[in-house]
Amino acid sequence: MFGTVSDSMEVKVPASEAWKLYGTLELAKIVPEALPNMVSKIDVVQGEGGVRTILELFFLPGRKDMTSYKEKCTVVDDEKRVKETEVLEGGFLDLGFTLYRVQYEVIEKEEKVCVTRVTIEYEVREEFAANVALVSIQPIVVIMEAVARHLTRNNLN
């Protein structure tokens, strides 16, 4: 079973400024701050933020469905301002998913306004179809909101 879920928001900063955060490891620094009740830390396993960078996300103790997972950055397109990551080990893969990909896009709307869009693509084996309920865009929306606050606070238009 294949599916996607997506959301977007307008941010009052130039797309180039938003991309400096989304297109780098800076995003990983904001995630634990944005989701303190979910993510305890993110370690850089390998790389410096580009393609083939591997991060390990650790969840707070007590979470029954997953304790951590590793994700690999598969696309970083500075021209199109697109970044994609895929779960490489653990997490969703341990729950019957064969694909769990997150795509971040920063789209220029006006000179000092952009749209950030995130899309989750997933594929799960039929016998684990009930686990589709674990796919939620909401935590990433919280991250997007935290990024938007960070960007608008740190970028004077």
Write up what this structure looks like.
With 157 residues, the chain is of the alpha+beta class. Helix content is 22%, strand content 44%. A seven-stranded antiparallel beta sheet has the order 1-7-6-5-4-3-2. Strand 3 and strand 4 (68-77) form a beta hairpin. It starts with a strand and ends with a helix. The model has no long low-confidence stretch (mean pLDDT 93).
How is the largest sheet built, in terms of strand order? Answer: 1-7-6-5-4-3-2
Number of helices: 3
Termini separation comes to 44 Å
Structural class: alpha+beta
- Mean pLDDT over the full residue set: 93
Q: Key terms for this structure?
A:
single chain; 7 strands; 157 residues; 22% helix; globular; 3 helices; alpha+beta; 7-stranded antiparallel sheet
Please render the helix and strand layout as text.
Layout: E1 2-11, H1 15-22, H2 26-34, E2 39-46, E3 54-59, E4 68-77, E5 82-90, E6 97-110, E7 113-124, H3 138-154
Antiparallel strand pairs: 1-7, 2-3, 3-4, 4-5, 5-6, 6-7
Short description:
With 157 residues, this protein is of the alpha+beta class. The protein has helices at 15-22, 26-34, 138-154; strands at residues 2-11, 39-46, 54-59, 68-77, 82-90, 97-110, 113-124.
